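Write out the 3D structure for:
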Amino acid sequence: MKSLWEWVSRPGASGRGEFHGIEARVRVEQLAHASTLGDRIEELRGRSVLIATREQLPTALALLELDGVARRFVLCTPDVTTEQLARIAQTAEADAIVLDAERAGAAPAGLKTYVPSVLPTPTRVTRQPSAPSEWILLTSGTTGAPKLVVHTLSSLGGTLPQQSSAPCVWSTFYDIRRYGGLQIYLRAVLSGVPLVLSSASESLHDFLTRAAAAGVTHISGTPSHWRRALMSGDAGLISPNYVRLSGEVADQAVLDRLRAAYPKARIAHAFASTEAGVAFEVNDGLAGFPAELIDAPRAHVEIKIEDGTLRIRSGRNAARYLGETEGAIIGADGFVDTGDLVELIEGRYHFRGRRGGVINVGGLKVFPEEIEAVLNSDPRVRMSLVRARRNPITGSLVMAEIVLRDAAGSADSAGAEALRLELLERCRKRLAAYKVPALIRFVPALALTAGGKLVRPAEGDPARGGSRA
């Protein structure tokens, strides 16, 4: 497969692929004799291009149009600042940028600007691939300019299903410019099925209403995405056959609540990272993953645990960092160190957190996700965030912020203190004393990153590996 367009236009292709954006709906077949870039698309042959549109639909179409035409393209998320765009352009040796009309003024100096139309414009199009393009993804969770991770269509989609065995409609809370969302985009394109794109400019209610109207059957998101949907009551707007979680630790509480919300759906959680690619999917309804996945290659993916962290070797690994100065992504043994710490408990590995996210309490290591799993297991808790609070004696103390399932619950409600004490007692029974929160606060909401993950102020970057996707 040289390019996406070569795949969707091959003899025997279903032709059912289409994208549902907030502003329009476009069928893949509409691009056969049209382009959102008009007759200027040929100008981008062999170039390095930044794709930095605010809405996802123009990006979804640009990928079909430019893969195999551009030398490389960088998928820039809407939260990338103008200053970061300039740094990314320099690192990627970019000479062109695709932007929305309202963002055209944000183009870094020296880049030729292209503004796509919402709908493809009829034009004479020659989409003979020049050579495989480099797909550049940005890591999340870093400060300053994000790292640029080099993939190809083969490393991103080489083992994904390439035909639809049954009618389905995909959707995702993710942005397709991030690894998790891009995987869903490629699943839909390679299978020739519709994809409902989310939009940062619409509410959760409106997005799920659109997804329901399109008949969504398969949908993915982070555990935090799903907790918010369950908390809002809008999760009931859809009736999916398949629900997928990735990007964060999927604790037992969120898996059980999704099972209760969608009793007929298959509930799965997957591990993937921008650098390492997809490692595995778990379908048994339990948190963590079975120990037999280790040292037992499946679908050309090898997994091992070394120094307590999960390491992956496969054809889905990224090639390198673009312009990187921090060492290669892939180690000397061919494995990528994800930086995710795991622990074997009764034949099953459980995620303990990121190596760079450990809280140091008097020299003892505390993993926020382990405490959050205990707090989230209480049916009155919808979601929680555990972080460090500086302390002159121990260095740090553990504090927890909790969103209650009952929206009326607050720090000032009559039962708040009793609930706080009950949650502390739950922690004391299940955790070592130094892991028990010194402070619990009830809050109305918790902030999420643009990628749908909990904002963790104390989280650092591992030396190698990178963001979970």
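DSSP finds ten helices and 27 strands in the chain.
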